[in-house]
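Archive entry. Fields below.
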Amino acid sequence: MRVRVKFAKYGPMKFIGHLELMRYLQSAVRRTEIPVKYDEGMHQRMVMSFAMPLGVGPISSAEYMDIELEAPISTEKAMQQLGEHMCEGLDILDFREVDGGKRMKAMTIVAAADYEVWFREGFTPDWDWKAGLKEFCSRESIPWVKETKKGTREVDMRSWIYDWEIREDKVYLRLCCSVGDNLKPEQLFGEMFRSYGHELPPFALQVHRLDLLTADEAGENYISLGDLGSRIP
Amino acid sequence: MRKLALSDEVLLSVQKPARYLGNEANAVYKDRGKVDIRFAMCFPDVYEVGMSHLGIQILYDMFNRREDTWCERVYSPWLDLDKILRDRKIPLFALESQDPIRDFDFLGITLQFELCYTNVLQILDLSGIPLRASERDESFPIVIGGGPCSYNPEPIAEFFDMFYIGEGEVVYDQLLDLYKAMKAAGKSRREFLVAAASQVPGIYVPSLYEVTYKEDGTIASFAPTVPGVPARVVKQTVRDLDTAPYPLHQLVPFIQITQDRAVVEIQRGCIRGCRFCQAGMIYRPNRERSFERLCRYTDALIENTGFDNFTLSSLSSSDYTCIKELVEYFVDTYGPRGTSLQLPSLRVDSLSLDVMTKLHDARRGNLTFAPEAGSQRLRDVINKGLTEEEILDGAREAFRGGWKKVKLYFMLGLPTETPEDRFAIADLANKIAVAYFQEVPKEKRNGRCDITVSTSFFVPKAFTPLQWAPMYTPSEYLSFASTVYDGIQSVLNRRSIWYKYHEADGTVLEGFLARGDRRCAEVILEAYRLGAMYDAWIETWDYSRWLKACENTGVDMSFFALRERSLDEILPWDFIDIGVTKSFLMREWKRAQEAVVTPNCREQCSGCGAARFGCGICKRESK
Ligand code: SF4
Ligand code: SF4
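PREDICTED_STRUCTURE:
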């Protein structure tokens, strides 16, 4: 039985990398009575996967972790037990049974991410970045050389910007976010800055991931990963 | 939410920001306003090393059981953050509350090895606490030292307000109660120090003692200057480990640390009296925790930490009476869940091979022997009761059981050591290789066996029978190592043998700090001023700073490091009473020179003096 755990990561936890977070959650799950499944290998690892690693720096209101259970446990009980073992900056938000199909893991179906982005204190640019962003996102196409693990790849960044809006001093973004194609807010801002002859200083942006989404069957609408599946009675 | 002491920008620009956040599972948070005593517990090395230390977890747990006390942790900031803190004048802070250390009531520093002394200064300096205790006014925390190096606290005495000599579980409550009462009564720092030194056993306040020196540089006298302060400080010993507090909610770090697992201390002290071994003497007598108690602890720790990795800790695991039962209990109960068990410091014999087989099934890791000396004669000198036959038998059995990697540890520069003893190291390694070829038939061999010989240089430590022994210069040490190398090159199976040896100048510094007295403090301060820090790390180790520091302060390092002491000399640590008597140590030093072995505590009591604590193995022997 596959379960999707939704949690928020913020505060001191934003400095904790993905590997460390995984270690933390594994030991936290082991401290509970949740009947989690282990793989058959020599080291018997917990069967656990994440929709999309967040990395160090951003905060998030909706991270998703898939685990497999040996036996069912109610959403309420599981959330209460897990909640007791969360440190400051991690909140368990949901615990749902989801489609256990091979190609239905969160990491496989994730297609887009919603973000809110702002400049950290002391990093607000001294030029009209809002006008810049408006113009940048209104372009027909944005040729971009994406650096990947295997080398570089030429893509049109514009096609990965699904939605955007300037909300006072913050920017809302819906960006392509999947295993294969992925655009991070920092990359968008980096390119935008560069096209105006500026350099985005390191640590300038605070990124807040609002949610992760999957495309509906028609591929037209996006739905939150958190809306899939059902709570366990 | 807690406000972090460091900005996002700082935390995002240093390596492993998790070192500075606290927030680990089982970390303790309290309300600042509701406690009377704020205690910062420090391990003066980087987080990953400090977090691996059991002693701190014991005290952290014990102090936090008190409602009136909040104990937090602090470790040495790594070099990247160290620089930022200095440049931006950010005071060093405790992990839990993120409050500056300077505002605490106590700063406790555990001293596990001598090469951390410059890091002690780093901690004080970054906290904004004057390095010398004499320069601290009422507003600063009481800086208290403990741990193995406090058995010769003299080289760093000037930096500490007090030392706790002994095992932490015993009188800390008494000390904290006294502090609380005196603080409430508005007493001064000095009044507290005098009261602690005179009323709380095991507390040593260096500023209340005066040392005078003879013309030849040795100590003429060492005595308290204040009435009521004891001339001798008696080490505090836990009599019954079963009733002593033990941390069952151990911290679970985010990042991988050196010892990344839950720890169960199965016993304290060691029945063997290896003459070079300080732990073997200062933790006498050997005391065991009961099997039943350990099973309960194991269960609770697994439940509370969620660790899938466990270690049974002790100085010599094989000597624990119920070791076999304990391993069986663990393997039966937790093996099916994939929880693994580490069992360090096993002697290689059929019992432990049996145990090891249970532990790692198919995996055959390294087999470790620590004969410490190559020849039987020299092993007798150091009282390492491990014979060549035992080593070879153990190796043969292990080879038959499928092991093929062997690690051998030796020390060089031992008293009475000759080139023959060094050649004997190569000889022994060769015999082990021969045993492999004899035991394992050709068709079953999967290549050669793999023997690693590691040598370190012997450093005489306080309260060991070899505390009077001489040391050598770095170049002499290197020549000892090259004899071993030549020896290995000359044996038949040289291609199965790898040789590694330790840094020599670090050894001499360690010797200097281990047997130094109060006059060494200037050198440590000067070395720190010249940039010395993290001296145990290759990245930062620079001997030239220390040589320069000696030169600048006019202190002769060789006087403290190299010189053989005469038996009538007053040693800087003589004022500490560890239970084991000086006359026993002298007897052992004499027997060492005659290469006569002394039986272990289980075979026969040798009347070392520790029986006076009335516990552990001594009690069993007298029954
Ligand atoms: S066996 Fe020897 S070296 Fe090991 S702890 Fe005991 S006394 Fe020390
Ligand atoms: S008094 Fe005897 S039994 Fe006790 S520690 Fe000393 S030698 Fe061992």
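CURATOR_NOTE: The pocket of iron/sulfur cluster (ligand 2) is lined by residues B 284-285, 601, 605-608, 610-611, 617-618, 621 (CB under 6 Å).
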